[in-house]
Structures are given as C-alpha cells and as structure tokens.
C-alpha cells in the first residue's frame, strides 16, 4: 500500500507557494467575516481582524497550523468551483496512479493540507480528475504532525494493516525518518524542479516513473 505526500512529491512546491498561498492570502480579510469561518476565527483570536492578521502571518511564515489549513481549504474550494484555480500534478504521476489502480494497489494521501484541500487538489488538476485513484486521506487533524512517529502509527491502525505493508513517499527527510521508525517502508522523492531536496538515507527517486 502506498501513502504519498503532495507538495514536492506529486506536485510542484512552486505551485503551492506562488499560486495557492497568494490566492488564499488575498481573501482572508473577507473570509474571516463569513459564517463558514466562524469556528476558525474562534480558534485563532478574539475577533476577525486579529484572526486575519495572525492567519496572514502564518501564511507568510509557512506555518502549518490546523486553523489556517482549514480556512485555506474553504477558500480554495470556492476558487476551484468557480474555475479560478487548477491544481498541479507532475506529468509522471497520473500514469503511475492509473497503473496502481489497475493493479488494485490502495493509495492514500498524507499531507499537512486539510483533507478537503487534498480532495479538491486531485479533483481539479491540469490532468483532469485524479481523485478516484485514492483510497483515503489523512491530515494533521486526523493523523497528527508529519514529523512524529505516532502519526504514522495512527494511519496504519486506521487503515487496518501492519506498518510493514505501507510505503511512504515524501520529499522531507524528517517525515521519512518518522515513518521508518514506525515500521513503514520509505522512498524519498527528490525532484530537480523542487531543488533536489536531501531525503537522508532513504531510497531516492526523482520521478514516479522509477516506481
């Protein structure tokens, strides 16, 4: 079974930072006053203006805070629905997803982005709707922080398999280390387009075509 990260693994980091983050940042001042965002505002601050300031600061610092990820998911959902946003997936990914689906290999997503944002991402790619290739989704709410061993234990228990049956794909060495400590197989994805990140001692690929 496969569990994959998104940013830097299936998709370009630049798209997230250059397209999605600015899109949500420019709309936060409006969204903190919407009823749909009331619970997020309560988690962050006492009033909408203060919440907006904190949320924008988190975007600028790339803080992976759950309330921010929740609100970004809502903002992006509207952007996808109106056709203003399209998600990015590397060209080498869809053929491998189709192969895994044909072979009956379950594929899950584990990303710091909310589960809603993950589903929207793979439903609205430049390659069309890829969501049907995934068996499930995990984020920092449902599983926990990505650099903690316990999060990978939670996912294995949720799926109902022995950790040794799971393989995690990520571009972040610390995440791969945590997964390996939890008993998972690991593969580091080090894409030249994303700066060829160091994935530590883990087996390394530069494209899904190598899988």
Task: Summarize it.
The protein has helices spanning 13-25, 28-31, 38-44, 48-60, 66-81, 93-103, 115-123, 149-159, 173-181, and strands at residues 2-4, 107-110, 136-138, 167-170, 185-189, 204-205.
What report would you give on this structure?
A 6-stranded parallel sheet has the order 3-2-1-4-5-6, with helices on both faces. α7 (115-123) links the parallel β2 (107-110) and β3 (136-138). α1 crosses α5 (66-81). The protein has helices at 13-25, 28-31, 38-44, 48-60, 66-81, 93-103, 115-123, 149-159, 173-181; strands spanning 2-4, 107-110, 136-138, 167-170, 185-189, 204-205. It is of the alpha/beta class and 211 residues long.
Taken as a percent bin, the fraction of beta residues is 5-15%
Q: How many beta-strand segments?
A: 6
Largest beta sheet: strand ordering: 3-2-1-4-5-6
Helix- and strand-based class?
Answer: alpha/beta
Describe the global form: globular
- The helical percent reads 40-55%
SSE order: EHHHHHHEHEHEHEE
Q: Flag low-confidence runs.
A: none
What is the residue-averaged pLDDT? 96
